[in-house]
Records
---
Amino acid sequence: MLTESKNKRKENPLNEAIGKDVQKFFRLLELHQDLREPFIQELCSKTKCKQIFNINYPVLIPILSGKEGKINGYKRYYSEPYNFNGKLYMLVNHWFVSNKSHFSKWQRIVLPIA
């Protein structure tokens, strides 16, 4: 029963849509270099990301060795890197509809005009 529920979450096209929205927003932040260091530090913290987005992984992880992106053998990060303040990061790909309101609230904090 629990496995069936998890599979339905993965197959939900709305989950894919939130992931694409997140990627687009982070590309805009990258393009304009609008993501300040305090926000980056929060996004690299698993604890903070749980509080902010209700997500179980750090939203960003720094690229250090080229082996990043997998957690417990599962690919949890998009392979295309993001450049913030001259450092490369990977963005978590584990977004669900339940994270959308949290992400939208954070967007308004980061960019009040978003």
---
Amino acid sequence: MVIEIEDDDGHREKYNISEELEELMKDHLPFDVPDEDMDEEYKTKLRPRRDTATVQDQVPWNRNLPECETYIQNYRKQNRGAPLQLMYSVEENEHIVLTCHYCGDKETYGKTIEWKKLDRKKAKGRQFRIVRIDIDMHDDDKDNRVFIDEEYGLHIKNATTADRGTYFCHDMKTRDIYVKKYLDVSMLKKFFFSSDRFRVFFHLEVDSKGIRFSKPFPEQVCKYLRVKPLPEQNRFVRPLTEQVCKYLRVKPLPEQVWKDLCAKPLPEQVSKQDNLVYYTSWGDWTPCSVCGAEGERKRRGTCMARLYSVKKMIRNFEQLYYILRSYKAGLPCRSSLFERYYYSMSKYRDRPDEMEYKSCHVQCWSGGGGGKKFASVKLDKIQFHDVMKRFPETTVIATEGDRVDLICPGSSIDTLVYWINGTKYMSSLKLREKTSNRVEIDAYNVFVIHTSLIEDSHSYTCSYAGRTRMIFHLKGNFLSELGEDFKIS
């Protein structure tokens, strides 16, 4: 399949659709954005960190020698030779790669490498089981979901919740007294803290698409927070309305307290009952959503839990205790490691994830180069063969006073979604301010009109990753109007 493009001189050129259509079909938004590829950077800054060390600083992303080797040596010295603990958090169906040697030096190990996983469920008695990872060896590499690459890295494609666990690679040419089929509690402690050799443990979390081990929340809260069978199902995000805050009360508290909690980031919370400290680990601010005009940034705070006292054992949950003891930064509150411990925990177990917003204004940069390849080509100069460019549309009917939720297809909490009214970009902060909170774009990028009015009868477009995803035509019979201060546009 090909397309033909005619330039200003009447010359026509053919382009292979598989190579050129993606660029050609990109929508050019009616405002400037800092970078066409910003959506990926936006996601990496908004999502919880993938790679966190057990010491005070972040593991360096550069795993090339010699910088990485220097870091490992310093780490072992600080941690008295204890293993390096790394937490990886992915969503279902993602592709994860675990490196056998953290610094990528494949010569460190022999060629008899085997990947193993510490099972999170106890086997017979009080023993813990170490299982060997079965590697796929199909004739067609595309059919291999779990495989090892040339540098002994473990690949897991289309990750599922069954892949959760603690992974490590083992050189079968060397004897390791702690790598056995079964470990008792005392051996488990030595497994995580022994300094006889350097080990790297990968604690893999896979977010489920279903609601995970959490008490059902009130229907009103779930409806407001879009708590559907999605990866973000039970992650509360701010700002919340006063009514939602009321639903979340565990015991009666002064109303002002709940207003404050909904307006400010949550403070650190200590539960001696759980032997845990609950706190928020804030990610980086996202890039500014637009340039040359007022936009907005946001950052996501992930609920974390770390040990309150290393001297106090979490009884009957030894594996969780030893991982927390060696992993100083703690674990995400919704880690599957807490699943069996969940119903023994205090009310703080449901501490929410948070989202914070702020306005921004950045300059637009030309970026050199030749600009957009097809930016000046008019649509009437393009002939498509067996291809039709058409934006999806839908009509939404509402009556005065209705609540209207416009959901951009395929988007999630991690997506940089642009909502456009005509040719005007609408930011969440400005929209709330202009309409006195009657209209907002919530943390899940849903365009919410809490009380619809006649002024809302417009066409609203949502776009992300350079594509128009849906045009919503809002129509209805509205009876009254409010002043200019309450209009969306």
